[in-house]
């Protein structure tokens, strides 16, 4: 899980952050003033400073925040001047927006605030709908507005071109003031809350920001998303009363507290209306005591009352945002906050410590117990003879106003303090009350005291111990305090008073020159926000008892010299023991020269003949070892055929792969041999339980590896592949795999499984392997093996880590129009199911749809998916003339059917030799395919984020395969595929299907200098590219494989595209220009398979396109990479024509199709 931050503000107004992987509070040093409150999201943190202005802190990322400004230059043709700026009076502006209605000259564009800077000057976009235009970038049409083309025709009377300019947000990791774009400023703000990022994924990074002013008004910040983190303007929201505090959850929950102690809930929040439509009233948890504070999450609401009691609201969800009732919880808090995954944080009313609610899960949202976060702050002094403490000065704000404020500062010995308990249960603990300033959570009015005349104030200093300690003299400032009442302390100190009167709801201390906290005194916190802190019930945190852990680790520290001496001593003792035990028994003969053992069990077998069905069989594995230690075995399947006992067998050394075939009804797996691969018909067995299936898979896998002499992790030359279910397989290539003219048939390759779950994997020949999960998380290979269901000797003990993957399951709701009722779920008898999969052939409803396999668990409810290709309307519907057809997002007169897609997230937790590479989610990755003897120190690695940004990874070496940081490479549009070949040739595919080549990429300039637009094949949109040593291959959206001709060192862009094959899903070009693909519709002797591994034969320098296809394992495969196999094949001399030795001839397909049908 990536590292995230918990934000907090202490009573002195200093902002701190605590990392989920850290053990101390890190102070935000760049804050130029004190802060009252903060509210965090994963990508940023908002805060209210003591000047009542709102500030934004955007977390620094390798992915910059760039905003594209655009304007269109329009021209009309006339007989005298040709195309010119002289437009008709009825025409659009010369420089306008895309609609032509708004005047947008180049010099009218201004930076929205000082936090932005221009990246460069205006330039012309020379790309038009995936095709390069003329150098000047013009597109032509008959008139405004019309359909534009890049080619000029005889009737082209108007033309336009797009001007682009980028601005970059530069105020990263610093507090930037939000500019006000209104003439009349709203009231000073007293509370702020951000959330709403789960309401709508588009635009990217959209946030809802709610604020409360001192006069009780509520404001909503419009236009906050990734490319505009500051937002655009404030909009006032009508209210039923005056609000003192507000809370916004990640979804559609927004609650607020009124001055009278009641609560209001915002209703009508949705994708198209993020600020909602109306308010609903909810009574306070206690009829006698009003509410003072509320915090909401995804499905939870927590509240505090004026007596600091904690309350939990039950029955809250998106359909019922008001909930059904209150439940009283144990604890007394002055402030509470709900973070990600509905985790709860609070600040104690007595000790002012930050508490974390343990045991919060999706099934138990209220949690189990409060536990104090006891970690030090950075800069804590390690030695001090005494600690200072601010005495408790209480005031009753409900009695009215007074004219003064008082301050008492005492010095005391460390022994006089009571530390906060490190563990809290739900039983009340009687502890002495710490003498600290109290803060009411009603309006968070601080009763801290102002000292306006330090020179006139006399203080008593009580010394504890032989050494006398001087008094601490911090400067105090009341920030817009409501009238505070001064009290005389029991020590009888004389204090001065100063008038303070304001309407603020927060007060803080000013920063003193010295640390205001002592050694044994924990910080006093005023506010906490976990909106950007990704924690769940399984997260291992180091936030508790870190002091004790650090002391223990210090006491157990061992020097490297001691470790080396112990290792040497232990090694000598073991050597002596081995020698003593072995020498005494050397004259004995070996007791057992060979062994045979058998494992039996009962399973079900999917029989080979029709009608195909599951039948009960006896399954046996007989394994034996020879005198030299070589192992082999046989598989037996015993079944009855018309009351006659028969058996099926397969030799273990002929098994090429064991594939789990998990579904919702059977725990089955498939066994392939070369003959079964040709038939496309494996031996399919089903175990009674998932555990039994995993036991058999692990045992069979170990037996297969033993029979082939394969042990340990995959080699650096290994070929990696992934099935459509996310299982990872590797194969060790033989030297003759690419040999000419008789290579090893690829259906004889042995594949073994590696733990983990991925969607994409890429490698190179020095052992660097990266993968991408279904949730776009990047993973790097750690060098281990096994994981998942592999245990014991089948898995390495180290380099195995937990891996989590999340993906969406989709179903479709289909409707047909009729003249009486309009669109309904009553279709024609020939129609598809009204709830179905994408094909419409299988019925899939919300209730009967299960996760892909028992390993997956649901983590969300069904929601409408608006991100469907072709677009949707406001309710998510797509329209068409009939099923199936081309769908579009708007209704026309000819549309008689419609559909919309529903999505539900499920999560898989497994283990494997993979470590996460946070924090940017990726959609594609490529690594330079180094030669086997390469001495390259830094290996170029390029990637594309899930939003289409092109990235270059820095610091990738064989020792540090994860690299250090990302370097952003600017593009004018989002990309979807990228590949780097020999000599740092970088090719990429944009989302509009166009191809690009990156120029001048080298070790001195790892990001290159510019993109060259490469025309796509005629009327085809490309989707994937792979670059080898000299070859460039692409696959288009129709499954065609293309080869780039004319690629030379002097002209690396090539000249034209040549069609090679069809029905291709993925392609991988290796470091020796070898070509492997995943092909669809491959015909076997028994069945037709989709997702089959295929190898291009006959590839050589004089014939780089190859000659024919050789079919390997399949179907059900989705990805393959051979970019690590740099082993040069042996040279084979052709026999002379006089020899009579028959040559083996493999049945391969010689033509350009990768299919056999």
TrEMBL record:
Key word Nucleotidyltransferase present: no
Domain of life of the organism encoding this protein: Eukaryota
SMART domains found in the cross-reference section: DysFC (SM00694), DysFN (SM00693), PH (SM00233), TECPR (SM00706)
GO molecular function term, any single one: phosphatidylinositol-3-phosphate binding
Entries under InterPro entries matching the protein: Beta-propeller_rpt_TECPR, Peroxin/Ferlin, PH_domain, TECPR1-like_DysF, Tectonin_beta-prop
Keywords assigned: Autophagy, Cytoplasmic vesicle, Lipid-binding, Lysosome, Membrane, Repeat
Domain PH residue range list: 597-707
Composition bias, Basic and acidic residues: 449-462
Residues in Peroxin/Ferlin domain copies: 64-125, 137-170, 804-865, 876-909
Region listing for Disordered, in residue ranges: 375-476
One Gene Ontology biological process: autophagosome maturation
Subcellular location: Cytoplasmic vesicle, Autophagosome membrane; Lysosome membrane
GO cellular component assignments: autophagosome membrane; cytoplasmic vesicle; lysosomal membrane
Similarity comment: Belongs to the TECPR1 family.
Protein name (record): Tectonin beta-propeller repeat-containing protein 1
Gene: tecpr1a
């Amino acid at each position: 899980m990536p590292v995230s931050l918990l934000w907090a503000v202490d009573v002195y107004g200093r902002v701190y952050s605590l990392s989920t992987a850290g053990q101390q509070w890190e102070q935000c040093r760049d804050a130029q003033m004190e802060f009252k409150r903060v509210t965090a999201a994963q990508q940023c943190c908002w805060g209210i400073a003591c000047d009542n202005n709102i500030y934004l802190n955007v977390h620094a990322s390798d992915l910059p925040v760039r905003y594209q400004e655009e304007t269109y230059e329009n021209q009309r043709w006339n007989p005298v001047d040709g195309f010119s700026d002289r437009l008709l009076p009825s025409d659009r502006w010369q420089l306008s927006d895309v609609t032509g209605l708004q005047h947008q000259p180049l010099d009218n564009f201004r930076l929205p605030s000082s936090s932005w800077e221009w990246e460069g000057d205006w330039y012309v976009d020379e790309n038009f709908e995936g095709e390069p235009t003329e150098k000047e970038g013009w597109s032509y049409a008959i008139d405004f507005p019309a359909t534009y083309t890049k080619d000029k025709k005889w009737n082209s009377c108007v033309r336009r071109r797009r001007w682009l300019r980028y601005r970059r947000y530069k105020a990263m990791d610093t507090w930037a003031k939000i500019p006000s774009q209104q003439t009349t400023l709203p009231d000073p703000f007293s509370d702020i809350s951000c959330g709403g990022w789960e309401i709508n994924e588009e635009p990217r990074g959209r946030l809802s920001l709610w604020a409360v002013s001192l006069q009780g008004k509520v404001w909503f910040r419009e236009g906050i998303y990734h490319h505009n983190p500051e937002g655009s303007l404030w909009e006032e929201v009508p209210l039923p009363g005056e609000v003192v505090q507000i809370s916004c959850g990640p979804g559609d929950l927004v609650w607020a507290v009124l001055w009278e102690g009641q609560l209001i809930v915002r209703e009508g929040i949705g994708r198209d209306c993020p600020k909602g439509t109306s308010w609903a009233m909810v009574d306070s948890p206690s009829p006698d005591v009003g509410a003072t504070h509320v915090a909401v999450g995804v499905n939870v609401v927590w509240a505090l009352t004026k007596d600091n009691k904690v309350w939990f609201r039950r029955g809250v969800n998106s359909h019922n945002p008001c909930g059904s009732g209150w439940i009283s919880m144990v604890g007394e808090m002055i402030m509470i906050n709900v973070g990600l995954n509905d985790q709860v944080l609070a600040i104690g009313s007595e000790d002012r410590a930050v508490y974390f609610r343990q045991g919060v899960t999706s099934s138990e949202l209220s949690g189990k117990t409060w536990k104090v976060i006891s970690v030090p702050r950075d800069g804590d002094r390690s030695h001090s003879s005494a600690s200072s403490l601010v005495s408790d000065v209480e005031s009753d704000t409900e009695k009215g106003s007074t004219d003064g404020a008082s301050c008492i500062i005492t010095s005391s010995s460390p022994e006089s303090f009571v530390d906060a308990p490190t563990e809290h249960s739900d039983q009340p603990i009687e502890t002495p009350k710490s003498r600290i300033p109290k803060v009411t959570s009603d309006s968070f009015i601080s009763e801290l005291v102002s000292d306006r005349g330090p020179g006139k104030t006399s203080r008593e200093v009580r010394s504890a111990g032989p050494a006398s300690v001087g008094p601490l003299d911090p400067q105090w400032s009341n920030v817009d305090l409501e009238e505070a009442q001064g009290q005389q302390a029991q020590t009888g100190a004389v204090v001065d008073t100063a008038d303070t009167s304001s309407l603020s709801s927060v007060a803080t201390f000013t920063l003193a020159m010295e640390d205001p906290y002592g050694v044994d005194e924990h910080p006093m916190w005023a506010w906490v926000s976990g909106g950007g802190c990704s924690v769940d019930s399984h997260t291992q945190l180091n936030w508790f008892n870190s002091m004790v852990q650090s002391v223990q680790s210090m006491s157990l520290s061992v020097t490297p010299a001691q470790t080396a001496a112990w290792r040497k001593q232990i090694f000598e003792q073991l050597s002596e023991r081995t020698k003593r035990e072995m020498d005494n028994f050397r004259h004995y003969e070996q007791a057992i020269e060979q062994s045979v053992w058998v494992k039996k069990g009962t399973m079900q077998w999917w029989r080979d003949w029709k009608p195909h069905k599951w039948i009960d069989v006896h399954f046996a594995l007989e394994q034996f070892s020879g005198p030299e230690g070589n192992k082999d075995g046989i598989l037996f399947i015993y079944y009855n055929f018309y009351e006659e006992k028969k058996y099926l067998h397969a030799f273990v050394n002929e098994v090429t792969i064991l594939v789990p075939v998990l579904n919702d009804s059977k725990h089955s797996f498939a066994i392939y041999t070369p003959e079964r691969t040709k038939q496309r018909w494996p031996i399919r067995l089903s175990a009674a339980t998932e555990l039994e299936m995993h036991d058999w898979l692990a045992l069979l896998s170990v037996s297969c590896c033993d029979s082939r002499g394969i042990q340990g992790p995959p080699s650096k030359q290994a070929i990696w592949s992934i099935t459509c279910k996310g299982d990872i397989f590797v194969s060790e290539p033989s030297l003759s795999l690419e040999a000419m003219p008789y290579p090893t048939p690829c259906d004889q390759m042995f594949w073994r499984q590696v733990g983990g779950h991925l969607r994409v994997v890429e490698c190179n020949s020095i052992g660097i392997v990266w993968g991408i999960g279904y949730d776009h998380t990047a993973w790097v290979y750690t060098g281990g093996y096994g994981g998942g269901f592999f245990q014991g000797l089948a898995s390495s003990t180290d380099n195995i880590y937990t891996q989590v993957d999340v993906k969406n399951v989709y179903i479709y709701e289909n409707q047909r129009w009729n003249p009486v009722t309009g669109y309904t779920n009553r279709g024609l008898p020939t129609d598809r199911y009204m709830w179905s999969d994408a094909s419409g052939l299988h019925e899939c409803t919300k209730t009967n749809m299960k996760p892909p396999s028992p390993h997956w668990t649901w983590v969300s409810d069904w929601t409408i998916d608006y991100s469907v290709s072709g677009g949707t309307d406001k309710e998510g519907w797509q329209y068409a003339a009939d099923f199936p057809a081309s769908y579009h997002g708007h209704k026309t007169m000819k549309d008689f059917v419609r559909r919309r897609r529903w999505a539900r997230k499920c999560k898989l937790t497994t283990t494997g030799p993979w470590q996460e590479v946070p924090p940017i989610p990726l959609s594609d990755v490529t690594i330079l395919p180094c030669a086997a003897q390469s001495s390259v120190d830094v290996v170029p690695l390029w990637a594309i984020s899930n939003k289409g940004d092109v990235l270059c990874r820095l610091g990738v070496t064989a020792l540090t395969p994860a690299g250090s940081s990302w370097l952003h490479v600017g593009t004018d549009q989002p990309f979807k595929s990228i590949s780097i070949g020999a000599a740092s040739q970088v090719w990429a595919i944009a989302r509009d299907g166009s191809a690009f080549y990156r120029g001048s990429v080298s070790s001195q300039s790892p990001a290159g200098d510019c993109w060259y637009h490469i025309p796509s094949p005629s009327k085809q949109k490309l989707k994937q590219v792979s670059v080898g040593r000299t070859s460039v291959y692409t696959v288009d959206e129709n499954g065609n494989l293309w080869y780039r001709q004319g690629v030379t060192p002097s002209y690396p862009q090539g000249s034209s595209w040549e069609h090679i094959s069809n029905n291709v899903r993925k392609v991988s070009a290796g470091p020796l220009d070898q070509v492997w693909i995943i092909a669809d519709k491959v015909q076997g002797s028994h069945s037709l398979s989709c997702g089959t591994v295929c190898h291009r034969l006959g590839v050589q320098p004089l014939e780089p396109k190859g000659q024919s296809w050789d079919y390997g394992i399949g179907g059900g495969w989705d990805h393959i990479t051979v970019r690590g196999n740099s082993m040069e094949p042996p040279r084979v001399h052709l026999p002379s024509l006089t020899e009579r030795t028959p040559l083996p001839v493999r049945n391969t397909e010689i033509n350009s199709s990768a299919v056999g049908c």
